[in-house]
Amino acid sequence: MEKKPPPSGDALEPNRRETVPVAKKEQALAPSFLQAVFDGFPESLMVINRDYSIALANRAVREASGHTDPVADGLTCHEVSHASASPCDCDEKHPCPMQQVLATGKPVVLEHLHYDQSGQPIPVEVMMAPILNEDGEAVQVIEFSRNIAEQKKNEEDLTRLSAAINQAAETIVITASDGTIEYTNPAFEAITGYSCEEAVGRNPRILKSGKQDQAFYRELWDTISSGKTWKGRFINRCKNGELYVEDAVISPVRDNSGTIVNYVAVKRDITEQLHLEQQFRQAQKMDEMGRLSSGIAHDFNNILQSILGFNELLMEDLKDQPSPLRKLREVEKAAKRAAELTQGLLAFSREDSADSEPLDINSPIRETEHMIERLIGINIQCVLHLAQELEKVPIASGKIAQIILNLAVNARDAMPDGGRLTFSTANITFSAKDAAAIPEIKEGKFICLSVTDTGTGMTKAVKEHLFEPFFTTKAVNEGTGLGLSVIYGIVKQHGGWIHVYSEVSHGTTIKIYLPVHEARPSESEPPAGAEGRGERILLVEDDMTLRNLCIRILLGEKYQVFAAGSLQEARSLSEREGDRFDLLFSDIMLPDGSGIELADELRRKMPALPVVLCSGYGDARERWSDLPKKDYHFMQKPFTVTELAFVIRQAMFQKSPSP
Q: Which domain does 47 fall in, by range?
């Protein structure tokens, strides 16, 4: 069968023209169809004429405004939205956005506050675009409004969260799942010294100090990589090399699929907190040791009082017999050495007497300079840097000499190959701000005694035990370990404190701060050699041996003595004698009460009665702070026969307080 040739293009052209008619002008969409499309948008959509009247509004506009047909009602866009700028609201600085669109033919995006039917403001994002005619002229504006209240809330939440993170005192670090740092807050830089720019992209191992082993970090990573939260403590290293301690909580962050994508670490620097806790524990330990030392010294002083008192009386009886007198003097020496030991314990426990006249401590330092030079030897240079016009402090010259000689001996032992020992003094004033910021510091005026050596220095462990009684780094029989504890007690007793700065191989500086006080009025003294004239003394002492000793001493001084062993006995005796006494001499610590309580009772009956109180506890000013106000005299055990006689005469001689 013969094939026909394909038709030529000319043959096809008539058919093409018949099936594809050409529209010379696009037809407009039917209003009903356009309205249906508009109503399908969930957000507000309007077509606005140049005069602000509404040409078309979708269902969202009608529902939000409460107008069923804003087009038919002839409403403007301002009446519907209560937000779009009207001509009367605009000026040169704030042009009408709709007029901008009409004038420029370019879309505008802005934020407005619309108001719902109840008048509540709603933040919306408004997008306006021009509708052009055939000539390209903007004749209408289509406005799309989107409620962004939730978005705004989320943005505000993020802003608050960001501000909280940036202002937090805790370090916050966000890392990728492999540990690479992606974010650090400002606290990170303040604590570590690394800026965010320096840290991002690096691993947290830049902070490693070497104080934790590999097992520590392995356990950490095993915990967080398994999706659990890790809590622990780091000893890390700052950029400048200093160590610090921080408590940390590290938590994994998962995406929607549950995959770990980040880790967040929140860490708090507790270095200063630990330092304060250590200081508190050390202070507690020293106080406990002080109470133990005080109790031992108190009981031992009662025994020494009897030994020294009776020995002194026996020496008086045997003063014409050289051989037994020499033996008794040896007994006296041994008892006084024991008394010195108890004084050291009392000084450590801050129960040695702190009463003294104000002193320029430069004087005892200069006076002991030659003694210091002999102590430290020729291979150690002694240097004095003493402040001119140094404030005075109420401390005995002997106490300062005791402090500097003890420190000189310790410094000498720390410089076996020679070196330099420097003593310096200065006036210091601390403000309330200083006192609040630095532990132990008090507000006020102080003098600072600084002792610096170039010796071997001390380890941290040695510094922690430095002032404990009987602690020593010296060999057996080379020291008692009481020297520095005595210094500690003297300084604390006088209201001061000590700072120790020391590094191994870099020497030691010990700074002693003592408060400046007003001078107290001096007491008048009785005529030398004055004896009693039969005055009646009520003696109260629970230790029978001491009571008998005091009776002998007072009888020897020509006084009448009425003795009691307890508070109740003293009350009964006073009642029997009609409260006719010229002086009360009592131990403060009685088995059934206090000598102060007895003195107060008798003073109410006899307002001019002189009172002398005694105790093995020497911290009368701290323990019984009202004694000076009451004009009660105080004696610390052990005392000599001569001291007792003098204080009794002094109390008798001085003018008693008025009723």
A: 31-150
Structural domain count of the chain: 5
Co-location of 373 and 462 in the same domain? yes
599-635: pLDDT as tens digits: 999 999 999 999 999 886 555 555 677 888 888 998 8
- Summarised one tens digit per residue, pLDDT across range 362-371 is 988 988 888 7
Backbone angles phi, psi at 243, to 5 degrees: -90, 150
Helix (H) and strand (E) counts for the chain?
A: 22, 24
- Alpha carbon separation from 248 to 49, 220, 236, 245, 313 (Å, rounded): 63, 11, 11, 10, 71
201/115 same-domain check: no
Q: What are phi and psi for residue 368, nearest 5 degrees?
A: -100, 5
Looking at the DSSP bridge assignments, the partners of residue 358 are 394
Task: Examine the domain organization and report whether 494 and 394 are in the same domain.
Answer: yes
Output 627-633 pairs: Cβ under 8 A, ≥24 positions apart. Answer: 627/596, 630/599, 630/600, 630/603, 631/656, 631/657, 632/596, 632/599
Whether 200 and 235 share a structural domain: yes
Work out the angle between the directed axes of helices 369-376 and 397-413 (0-180°, nearest 10): 20
pLDDT band per the 50, 70, 90 thresholds, residue 17: very low
At residue 114, the 3 state secondary structure works out as strand
Whether residue 127 is found in the same domain as residue 78: yes
Residue 97 pLDDT more than 80? Answer: yes
Q: Would you say residue 91 lies in a domain?
A: yes
CATH code, 590: 3.40.50.2300
Geometric angle at alpha carbon 353, from 550 and 582, rounded to 5°: 40
